[in-house]
Amino acid sequence: MDECTTRVSARGYVVEYRPGHPMAARNGWAYQHRVVMMKLLGRPLLKTEVVHHKNGVKTDNRLENLELMTARQHVREHHAHPKKALTDARVMAALRGRTAEEAAHLLGICRNTLRKRYRKFQRRHASPFEIDAREEEIRRMSKLHPPYILGPMLGYSKQTVYDAFRRWRERDDRLGVPARPDDHRPHSTRRRARKA
Questions:
Q1: CA-angle at 79, arms to 76 and 84, nearest 5°
Q2: Which backbone phi and psi does 133 adopt, to 5 degrees?
Q3: I want to staple 114 with a disulfide (CB 3.0 to 4.6 A). Which of 12, 18, 65, 104 is the partner?
């Protein structure tokens, strides 16, 4: 493959910057799997032709993984294997320790579908009152787990837990309470020494 700029598109496909190429869009970017298939066939692809990734990995553009199909065949291929039903248990298991995007990919659904239909299972930013009520429990658990793990375990975002520790530390400083060993500080609030 000749040298050109490549990146992964928002849809997960590898695209190449090839201005003037017959397969390129107006902005100059062309889907790599379509360029590879065009080279194999020796002609530009028709608009009705679709390049299918046999193993389902959109970034795997090896010739042995690509197959030329019509749009109708492609739809049949993807609907021939029914997806498992989405149950609350499957969604909860997929979200455990993962971002919404990672869980959606694992479940084979769109990230927005997961966010809209299963909002109740996702990590959330809690109100200070809600998390302050669990201060002792969270401090006890923080002896075993750092906040970036503790947050998802409790159903909160890691930033919510970091913010709670910062708030508790500031409160303790105002009251003159000595710092606790379980006080965690996020990277973004650490002060760096400046070079003179």
A1: 165
A2: -65, -20
A3: 104
